[in-house]
Specification:
The chain contains 12 helices and 8 strands. By secondary structure, the chain is an alpha/beta fold. It has an 8-stranded mixed sheet with strand order 1-2-4-3-5-6-7-8. Strand 3 (about 60-65), helix 2 (about 75-80) and strand 4 form a beta-alpha-beta unit.
Length: about 325
């Protein structure tokens, strides 16, 4: 009798577990479908070494390539600054592999040299003549890696709140994304991660934008919904794990950068502190144009787009002078 009861209980628990997983999976696909309906692809696609890259390409003139940060996508630039440049520039923003509508190649690890190499190949495939590259947050680390490992491909770099140094304890701010196991990363991406991300989306965005408010149209115009898809979550987690493998080595080489370079950083950035990732760069890159902004948070392109455009144009003038 006791054995029968135990078997019945185990069966009931197993059934409940299956139902719970099915509900999470259904919720994940429902949220992802809604995200893609609200923020569909807006650009073109190109194959780069097994990566399917989604990008937007507008205007004519001197080329500027935009590389977004962790968990973001090309709308972080297209929506905020593209319409403010005026004539004379060809503006190109890409979804990094795995982010937005870009698909990461099978077996790719998301390491900084790998991502920088893809940006270089992207520049080549589009026939861009030594563009200025703008990098935000993690995109800043990728842009710095590009400047170090492929300096002949670009004419200068403009960094917005960039990740520049391997910071002790930084991983704690990304505990929910630091998942070294690829299998566990995949399981979470298709079960708990997306429903949980939707539930905590508002406080997460408030932290990222603080001390400024989150724009009312961020989820649609700014592309925020696209982060609520399993493939995007998986790529973001991959990036978090990968950055530790190369950043310490990359940061020791900043003194080798000889091209025009600039950094715009907010003093109130709570995601990437200016004191660790901005100020030390003054002494590491010769001729660095450093623009600290009092009271600004981590998302300058959303909060002060005119200032960001003026900064990029200033670096572009130096980069394209030759």
């Amino acid at each position: 009798m006791l054995v029968s009861i135990l078997l019945w209980l185990l069966g009931a628990i197993a059934l409940l577990a299956v139902l719970a997983v099915a509900c999470l999976l259904a919720a994940t696909f429902w949220i992802a479908a809604k995200a893609q309906r609200l923020v569909p692809p807006v650009g073109k696609f190109i194959e780069i070494d097994g990566n399917r890259i989604h990008y937007v390409d507008v205007g004519e003139g001197r080329p500027i390539v935009f590389v977004h940060g962790l968990g973001a996508q090309l709308h972080h630039f297209r929506h905020t600054v593209f319409g403010r440049f005026g004539p004379g520039y060809r503006l190109v923003a890409l979804d990094r592999p795995g982010s937005g509508y870009s698909v990461r190649a099978r077996g790719a690890m998301g390491r900084l040299p790998e991502q920088a190499g893809i940006v270089r190949r992207f520049i080549e495939e589009l026939g861009l003549d030594r563009p200025l590259v703008v990098g935000h947050s993690l995109g800043g680390a990728i842009t710095l890696t590009l400047a170090l490992e492929h300096p002949g491909s670009i004419s200068g770099i403009a960094l917005l709140a960039p990740l520049t140094h391997l910071e002790t304890g930084a991983r704690q701010r990304f505990d929910l994304l630091y998942i070294p196991s690829r299998l566990l990363r995949w399981v979470l991406a298709y079960s708990l991660a997306i429903p949980a991300s939707l539930k905590y989306a508002q406080p997460t965005m408030q932290f990222i934008f603080a001390p400024q408010p989150v724009p009312d149209d961020y989820m649609t115009g700014g592309g925020g919904w696209l982060g609520l898809r399993p493939r995007h979550y998986y790529a973001t987690s991959t990036d978090v794990v990968a950055v530790e493998q190369d950043l310490a080595r990359i940061e020791r080489r900043y003194g080798e950068i000889a091209m025009p370079a600039g950094i715009l950083f907010g003093s109130a950035d709570r995601v990437i502190g200016m004191g660790i990732h901005g100020e030390p760069m003054r002494d590491k890159i010769s001729g660095l144009d450093c623009e600290p902004v009092e009271g600004l948070g981590h998302m300058p392109q959303f909060v002060e787009p005119e200032r960001v455009v003026a900064f990029i144009k200033r670096i572009a003038a130096r980069a394209f002078a030759g």
